[in-house]
Amino acid sequence: MAVPFCVGKLIDILSSSKEDMKNSLIGYCQVLVLIFAVGALANLGRVYLMNTSSYRIVNSLRKRAYRSILSQEVGFFDCTSTGELINRLSSDTAAVGTSITNNVSDGMRSAFSFIASSSLMVFTSPSLAMLGLMTVTPVAVIAVVSGKSLKRNSQQVQSALASATQVAEERLSNIRTVHAFARLNEEYDLFQSKVNSIMQFATKEALGRAVFFGMVRNLFNQS
What we know:
By secondary structure, this protein is mostly helical. Helix content is about 90%, strand content about 0%. It has 8 helices and no strands. The longest helix has about 50 residues, at about 20-70.
């Protein structure tokens, strides 16, 4: 958040007298280089720590989930498909690890940037800042509504992926039976329909994300 402030000072220096311009310009350029260097190091550390933390959380979740699955009664496995359990151990644990680390980190960074930028806007021009902050309410409403829709779409993608994984695992584990009854084409068509359903839900999710980010960025650019 110090970059816009320094850029504003550079503009003030360029519009000042030529006698003091050179020394002041060099000084502010040095400050900018220092700010960019510190920001790059901080970003490097944040990304490294968040990614390693995510991997550690995912590993711990997979171990606990697998231990919990093994301790269930036999009737649990009759009601729950193997493909769904494997999908929970693979993709769902990765999604939880990412949500706990990267998403929380990005959310905290965005919240801090919002507070700092709002404070600078109020300090510079309170009336203009209030006009700009008026766009926060509609953006927040759109974010809540779109977030629920994206969550439903993501759940549908995960369920479709679990179904496709279940079909593939069951058929491949009983491949001799499939060959014996000459049902290669039928099983391929079944798996193809499952994969196509994943693509449909994924396309719907991608469209929802595109509309959400397009609307939000458009509102911020207009403000």
